Amino acid sequence: MDSITATAKSWLTDFFDTATKKEIENLIQTDTEELKERFYKDLEFGTGGMRGIMGVGTNRINKYTLGKSTQGLSNYLNQTFPHDELKVVIAYDCRHNSDSLSQVVAEVLSANGIKVFRFSALRTTPELSFAVRHLNCHAGIVLTASHNPPEYNGYKVYWGDGGQIVPPEDGEIIAEIDSLSFEDIKFTANHNLIESIDTEVDEAFFNESVKNGNFDADGKDNFKIVFTSIHGTSITAIPEVLKRAGYKNVTVIQEQAEPDGNFPTVKSPNPEEPEALAMAIAKAEEIDADMVVGTDPDSDRLGIAVRNLEGEMELLNGNQTMVLMTKFLLDQHKAKGLKGNEFIASTIVSTPMMAQMAEAYGVECKTSLTGFKWIGKMIKDFPASTFVGGGEESFGYMVGDFVRDKDAVTSTLLACEIAAQAKANGSSFYKDLIDCYVQFGFYKEKLISITKKGMSGADEIKQMLKDFKENPVESVQGSKVLWIEDYNTSISKNVQTGEEKSIDLPKSNVLIYETEDGTRIAARPSGTEPKVKFYMSTNTILTKAEDFKSVNSQLDSKLEGIVAELNL
Q: What region holds the Alpha-D-phosphohexomutase alpha/beta/alpha domain (predicted)?
């Protein structure tokens, strides 16, 4: 505790503002536990950048922690591109302090001689990714905490290709940040280097989104959509993109249309949670809509609900939407003639059905670690290949490569195109998904997330993952474990034969068990939240669509059995 108090007292110098010093002095005198939580470590970059609770402290999001990260980035840019006129674009979402913190970030960049394009108001993360290349910038920054609770904010850094920073740049930037003290931050802005941007970039982004997501589907006039931005940024883009693509029957949930960092109508602004779309689903039932779409605060994730075989609205998971979107895009490419260099992408904890589909179409399925930064890197690493589309189980998808991160704007349009065309053909989004199961195998997944907050929670998460590794699962629902994939050691081992294979991906704290019947169980800590996540996937053959209900029930029972077996 002495070292933590010493770290806190280092924030009592004249460099820090009066309000910050007053709050720290109060914590030292009255709340040592809270002081410990705020200063026991520095915020770290995870799979989605730096994200945390707002407030005073080294383990909090504030002008100093963001300022230090921005100073480190500025130093790195000046060292890496010494002869360039450096340019960085900044966007921010609806969260508390995002506007003011983004201004601080712009000022630090400008103080280091870097030209800054800052959006004049909140914008989506996919538009920020697009803007990096559109404006020929060296980097981009978005202030967002995605779908985290209201007390969070965050900071994601993008490189010149429009994708999030990846090796080696990420490690080198972090090393530069770690070498600095807070007193190294240059806060004195050069306002001549800060330029406000808005409609010109909006227009370019909307046009590209429609170009990539619109396939001239039939039946748009008879297709009803209910859309909710869940108080986030997508209200600035999705209604307009749908309108330009020809959708006229779009009902926006007005109670959730106003950007609001408190997210007052939901427990969590996360479209993965059924409760977040409850208001939109109720409206869909009322007006007999065909589809519900909801997005997270920065509009990179989308949740979709469609009518199931009983005509009821059912929320699909990220794997289900990813599968059908990818099949649709592959069909479009196939109709034009596949050239043999196409690939789709997914992650190690997403449905194995993506690989089965790729094999059926004769294209490659590249699999990455969790996080769209790795999918964006694939596009950069394989310039001679054509990226069709790809996603991950956590409700993210990317259509083509004009955006280099998950993109709920274009993906929303794509989902509507698929569903409108299916309805015009006498089918539905849901029935087309069932047809995928018949064609490629019926894969079904389940995710269990366990939240452990604070310093003690971080220790609990480490222990849970340690136990999962040191006490190996030997069988799952009667099927013997065949392979154990340890991404910390980069070794995949066949526990039946002793055979070992190297895993050609960066090291990561992920452990995956695969059984003889193809059931997979993965465990990993979240890179952006105080959670440990367990991903389960099982599969079987679906001979014909008419058997869907009974087979679906069997897979549900098996997944519930796995949860019980693992005591989750």
A: 44-182, 214-305, 317-436
Per-residue model confidence as pLDDT tens digits over 192-225: 999 999 999 999 999 999 999 999 999 999 999 9
Q: CA 363 to CA 340: how far, in whole Å?
A: 7
In a domain, 214, yes or no: no
* Positive or negative: CA dihedral 199, 205, 211, 215: negative
Is it true that the peptide bond before 271 is cis, omega within 30 degrees of 0? Answer: no
Beta strand spans in 26-73 (E): 45-46, 49-53
Question: Do 297 and 407 contact (CB within 8 A), yes or no?
Answer: no
Catalytic-residue membership of 502: no
Q: Which of 36-45, 462-471, 555-564 has the highest mean pLDDT?
A: 555-564
Burial status of residue 563 (CB atoms within 10 A of its CB: 0-12, 13-18, 19 or more): middle
Burial bucket for residue 250 (CB in 10 Å: 0-12, 13-18, 19+): middle
CA proximity to 176, closest of 69, 273, 97: 69
Confidence of residue 46 (pLDDT cuts 50, 70, 90): low
Identity of residue 546:
E
pLDDT band for 45, please (50, 70, 90 cuts).
confident
138 Cβ neighbours under 8 A, 6+ residues apart: 77, 81, 84, 86, 87, 88, 159, 160
- Tracing tokens 């504030």 back to the chain, one arrives at 62
User: Using the 8-state DSSP alphabet, how is residue 301 labeled?
Assistant: B
Q: What is the DSSP string of 325-376?
A: HHHHHHHHHHHH---S-EEEEEETTS-THHHHHHHHHT-EEEEESSSHHHHH
Cβ(224)–Cβ(249) below 8 Å = yes
- The answer to whether the beta carbons of residues 242 and 209 sit under 8 Å apart is no
Separation CA 222–CA 289 (nearest Å): 10
Q: Give the whole-angstrom CA distance, residue 441 versus residue 349.
A: 18
Of residues 74, 146, 234, 411, which has the active-site annotation? Answer: 146
Measured CA to CA, the distance from residue 397 to residue 322 in angstroms comes to 7
Question: Is residue 313 in some structural domain?
Answer: no
Domain boundary among 415, 440, 465: 440
Closest CA to 465 of 398, 417, 526: 526
Contacts of residue 560, defined as CB under 8 A and 6 or more positions apart, other chains included, come to: none
| Helix axes 18-30 and 32-39, enclosed angle (nearest 10) | 130
Residues 34 and 67 in one domain: no
Q: In terms of DSSP bridges, do strands 225-228 and 291-295 run parallel, antiparallel, or are they unpaired? A: parallel
How many Cβ atoms from other residues are within 10 Å of residue 293's Cβ? Answer: 28
Parallel/antiparallel/unpaired status of strands 531-540 and 520-525:
antiparallel
Supply the range of the domain harboring residue 233: 204-208+219-308
Tokens of residue 404, six digits? 């280099």
CATH code at position 418 = 3.40.120.10
